[in-house]
Write a structure and sequence with these properties.
alpha/beta; two-stranded antiparallel ribbon; 8 strands; globular; Rossmann fold; Histone, subunit A; P-loop_NTPase; 6-stranded parallel sheet
Length: about 325
């Protein structure tokens, strides 16, 4: 990555917030105004098999300004925070080299933390130990393996939900391979954050407004072909604990295709679970700022790309003015 001249910091923008808060529309508006390149910071939008259900930008939107890290992994892959961080730093460097401002847009808190705070350099366990951990997960189930991890590594186990099989297996393999738990490693060596000055826009819409938007979007997804998308995903016969198989809406629509649930019940459940997830996202962002207070703009409505043009223009202009003023204040440059 190209470094800025001594004494100056390159600027990177962050557009963060819960699912369905209008991040993509805002990032696109910002990119057009400041000459930006949008870099995906959402752990589900990296999968190419799920354009509809993960609400990735459309092909037309991606053609307007440069986009990076959208739909770059097959569903059979298991994207990690470390993988994303390396790709994101390279994408930021490419944006700066092209004279553009990197705009990190998404809702995955751990990705933002790896970007702004750095990441623990945890060794990769040997393939045999990875397979052993996945075998135990399949044999015992997540809650039982979590209970065993609690005996072996209580500090790490306390940070994991007993139903989160992927992260439990990951913690088990790290403890088995290295003799130390994930919590221990996180307190040690750290891969550095992106060398940039961050300016953040945090979207925090009211709960009722967000719930209504989630319901509308899920109905739109169904109309756009979400069921066919899940059917194609199931045809790959992938392990159920892969991230893409657990994306919001996938388990519920898969149950419909298997005849285990009605479409109405599946939609209601998917909307409810997504709403619960957005609450956790909002809590995370409230406690983990992505930029200094003076470089953070909090917008507490939903940024609606389809709302009245004049209203959206006013809001967008206010945010754009904030960004430009903060760049000027810090003598930052793309």
């Amino acid at each position: 990555m190209t470094r800025p001249p001594s004494g100056q910091a390159r600027v990177a923008l962050i557009v963060a917030g819960p699912t369905c808060s209008g991040k993509s529309a805002l990032a696109l508006a910002l990119a057009r105004e400041v000459g930006g390149a949008i870099i995906n910071t959402d752990s589900m939008q990296v999968y190419r098999d799920l354009r509809i259900l993960t609400a990735r930008p459309t092909e037309a939107e991606e053609a307007c300004v440069p986009h990076a890290l959208y739909g770059v992994l097959p569903a059979a892959s298991n994207g990690s925070v470390a993988w994303w961080r390396a790709q994101a730093l390279a994408a930021a460097g490419s944006a700066w080299d092209a004279g553009r401002v990197p705009i990190f847009c998404g809702g995955t808190g751990m990705y933002f933390r790896a970007l702004t705070d750095g990441l623990a350099d945890i060794p990769q366990p040997p393939p045999a130990i990875r397979e052993q951990a996945r075998g135990l997960l399949a044999e015992l189930g997540a809650p039982v393996l979590h209970a065993r991890l609690q005996q072996l590594d209580p500090e790490t186990a306390a940070t994991l939900r007993p139903t989160d099989g992927q992260r439990i297996a990951r913690a088990w393999e790290v403890r088995t391979a290295t003799g130390h738990g994930m919590a221990w490693w996180r307190s040690k060596a750290v891969l550095p954050p992106l060398a940039a000055r961050f300016i953040a826009i945090r979207l925090h819409p009211a709960r009722d407004r967000l719930r209504a938007a989630i319901a509308r979007r899920f109905q739109a997804m169904l109309e756009q072909g979400a069921m066919a998308e899940v059917e194609a995903l199931l045809a790959q016969a992938l392990p159920p604990d892969l991230p893409a198989m657990r994306a919001h809406g996938v388990p519920e629509l898969a149950a419909v295709l298997r005849g285990e649930m009605t479409l109405a019940d599946a939609a209601a459940r998917a909307i409810t679970l997504t709403g619960q997830y957005t609450k956790r996202q909002a809590t995370w962002f409230a406690h983990h700022p992505c930029a200094a207070p003076e470089d953070t703009f909090l917008y507490e409505k939903r940024f609606e790309k389809d709302e009245a043009a004049q209203q959206m223009e006013r809001v967008g202009n206010k945010i754009i003015s904030f960004v430009i003023n903060r760049i000027d204040a810090g003598q930052g440059f793309p």
